[in-house]
Amino acid sequence: MTDTEPFLNTARQVITDEARALDVLAESLDEHFAEAVQLILQATGRIIISGIGKSGHIGHKIAATLASTGTPAYFVHPAEASHGDLGMVSKGDVVLAISNSGEAPELANLLAFTRRFGIPLIGLSSKPESTLMKQADVHLLIPSMGEACGFGMVPSISTTLTLAMGDALAIALMKYRDFKPEDFRAFHPGGKLGARLSTVRDLMHSGAALPLVSSDTPMSDALIEISQKGFGVAGVADAQGQLVGIITDGDLRRHMDGLLDNAAAQVMTKNPTTIAPNALAEEAVAIMNDRKITSLFVVDPEVPGQAQGLIHIHDCLRVGLG
After folding, report:
1. pLDDT tens digits, residue range 58-93?
2. Where are the alpha helices (DSSP H) in 83-156?
3. Among 198, 199, 248, 264, whose CB has the most other CB atoms within 10 angstroms?
4. 3-state per-residue secondary structure call for 137-153
5. CA angle in degrees (0–180, nearest 5) for 252-257-260
6. Do 35 and 168 sit in the same domain of this protein?
7. Which are the contacts of 111, defined by CB distance < 8 A and separation ≥ 6?
8. Looking at residue 227, which CATH number applies to its domain?
9. CA triple 119-120-125, angle to 5 deg
C-alpha cells in the first residue's frame, strides 16, 4: 500500500505557502490599489484584461468576475490583439495588463497602443522595475515570494496572489457601487446560483390561479376553490379585499363537525404568514420550513393587506431550492 503521507505533506505545504503569501499581500496593499479602483470607476468604457499563459487564465477569471459584479470587462488575448483585436480597445477604456515578470513580449503591442492613444494602463506584476510597471499609470504590485514548487518554475503562489488581487478589485468596486443581490441576479439567471437569487415574484402564482374566497363564502364553495386551484389552501379576504385569513387542511380537520354549515371566516386561521414579492425565494423556503407550512401568500408592503400571489414549496423545489 502506498504511503500517502508525503503527498499530504506536500499539499499542506503548498496551501500553507500560498496562505502566507496572501497575508503578505493583504498587508502590502496601499494607495496604489485605491488609485486602481478610482481609475476604473472613472472609466466611461470597459475594463480590458490581458495576459499570456497562466496570467491569461487568471485574467479570464478576473474579467468574468468584474463583468458579473457590475464592472463591464472582457479579456483580450495579447497575441490576438497584435492581429486586429486592438480594435476592441478604445478611448474611455482602462487596460489591466497582467504579467508576473512584467516582461512578457506578447504584451508589447498592447502596451504601446495604450501609450499612443492615451488609454489608462494598470500593471499587475511582482517586478516593480519591469517594462510593464515602468509603462503603467497605476501599479498593482504582488509580493515576489517564489513559487510553491520550490524552484520558482511552476506558477502557483504568483497566480494565487494575482487572482486574489483581481477579486479584491472586483469586490471593492462592487461595494462602492452598492451592487445588490437583485443586480447580481440579473447576470446569473441560470443554474443553482440563479435559483438562489430568484425572487418570490418570479415564482408566485397570481391572477386567476390565486386561491381566494371572501369571508362570507360558504365552505362548500371554499372547498371547491381549494380543490380547483390545487394548492391545498385558500386565502380569505374581507369586503375591502384585504387578506384576513387562510384555510388549510388543518383548519378543515379542526372544523370537520358541521364544516359545511360554516362560512370561510368561521374556519380560517387569522393573520396568516405572508411574504413580500421582492423577497428572495430562498427566504420563502426558510419561512416555510421554519413554520412547517407548504405555501405563503404574497403581500406587497406598498399595497398592505392585498394578496398579490401565492408561492408554494413545490415551486421552489422545481427550481432547485429547498
Report:
1. 999 999 999 988 899 999 999 999 888 999 999 999
2. 108-116, 131-135
3. 264
4. CEEEECCCCCCCCCCCC
5. 70
6. yes
7. 97, 121, 131, 132, 135
8. 3.10.580.10
9. 125
Residues 35 and 175 in one domain: yes
Going by C-alpha positions, the residue among 227, 246, 236, 252 that lies closest to residue 294 is 246
Q: Is residue 161 part of a domain?
A: yes
Q: Are residues 300 and 271 in the same domain?
A: yes
Query: At which of 179, 212, 239 does a domain end?
Result: 179
Question: Cell digits for 196?
Answer: 438562489
pTM above 0.70, yes or no: no
Residue 245 included in any domain: yes
Cell numbers of 156, please?
Answer: 502557483
Total residue count of the chain as it appears in this document: 322
Task: Count the neighbouring beta carbons within 10 Å of the beta carbon of residue 313.
Answer: 17
Grid coordinates representing 159 are 497566480
For residue 214, the one-letter residue type is S
Let me know if 138 is exposed, middle or buried by CB neighbors in 10 A (0-12, 13-18, 19+): buried
188 falls within a domain: no
Q: Residue 263 phi/psi, 5° resolution?
A: -95, 165
Amino acid symbol at 117: F
Side chain identity at residue 78, one-letter code:
P
Residue 316's pLDDT band (cuts 50, 70, 90)? confident
The cell for 95 is 487596460
Nearest to 293 by CA among 307, 276, 314: 314
SS3 269: strand
Q: Are 80 and 223 contained in the same domain?
A: no
Give pLDDT tens digits for 95-134.
Answer: 999 999 999 999 999 999 999 999 999 999 999 999 999 9
Distance CA 128, CA 125 (A): 7
**How is residue 123 written as a grid cell?**
500593471
Domain tally for the chain? 2
**Cell numbers describing residue 92:** 474611455
Residue 147 domain boundaries: 5-179
